[in-house]
């Protein structure tokens, strides 16, 4: 739809930026922190590990001062479960609680609204050793951990996110690293884990509402739209298959508390249905989110798969690069769209479409909790970083958010990935996303100095003008 005049961004629009604990903090074994699955995974020997990351744990005050200079209205970060309860259950680590309390106080001192993710990929390793999310006991562990946070930080935090990208954890577990034994869980196990996460999430959302009545809580999923490759009806079915299995089925559960019929048939057909105990569905249903957070990076184009093995692409997939599944969907190239250096399709208009679809389906306000472009930025001798590609990427996406707002979609915040350079989930340090450059290499930690990129100064103006970037 074309408009003569676009709606302005609301005055209280939350302009922000994101990070996650294990990708930014470092200090992997400091001040009583326990080991997480991330600390114990086999990471590629060609890229940085997470032990030091961006050293935000030690430099958070200086970083927040820079976030203030950038003009952030909000900062989305995650809490490392293993700093709070080092073994997942049992003893609480006061130093961990103090750290996040200070961080939140520092944000408030600058008038920056904290958006806190409870869990962003870094499950305590002790829980993993006992079966991780496949073990039902992890539900109680997550609820207990969340209770500790709500009780200590509840008065200081308005926005909570439950689980970051549950769909990535279930559909692309390898994107977050390989277990030491080199074996990813079976699909049957993954869908059982999925079910337990949903029960845990349902309980935690209800708990949040009872313990922190002023707070708002929602899930954060990796959402995208699927285009059908041609007008062939079978391609439309395939695109619908994958859009449902990858996105809708997760959101249907998180928001409506219902197993999507198509997901259920897909699971039944393969013998992958989870064991559902009495009362589980009630708990999932009673955990009503106040909003939906979406991480949006790209879209995919899909054609019919007639079941041939060759419908799986001979290349590495990750949370954004679709691989294909015989009999379900086959990924195709999209001749209208470019890709990043890492093969992720760049599709700003797809963001508008995804926002519309999510809003139409669930009628809940939407927070864009991630969106960004990974690139091997170069630091120049004069301490500049000319990341024009990032400015272009974010500008084009902000324009589409404004289109979506004009369409009538309720979007209340935008938190690009990332506030500052962080370690990528599986592609090292030099795949950078931040507005702030961190002077370190893949392995050489150098001086970890912070340098404002061109995108920093540009985003600062965007925020100052409340999105008037045209
Ligand atoms: C999202 C994750 O899927 O994508 C982030 O929530 C991640 O943790 C981001 O960093 C970018 O992906 P990557 O793999 O390039 O780090």
TrEMBL record:
Q: Which GO molecular-function terms appear in the entry?
A: beta-glucosidase activity
Q: What positions does UniProt annotate as the active site of this protein? A: 370 (nucleophile)
Is Transport a UniProt keyword of this protein?
Answer: no
Classification via Pfam families: Glyco_hydro_1
One GO BP = carbohydrate catabolic process
PROSITE patterns with a match to the protein in the record: GLYCOSYL_HYDROL_F1_1, GLYCOSYL_HYDROL_F1_2
Similarity annotation? Belongs to the glycosyl hydrolase 1 family.
Identification of the protein by name? 6-phospho-beta-glucosidase
- The organism is Halolactibacillus alkaliphilus
Instruction: Read off the lineage from the record.
Output: Bacteria, Bacillati, Bacillota, Bacilli, Bacillales
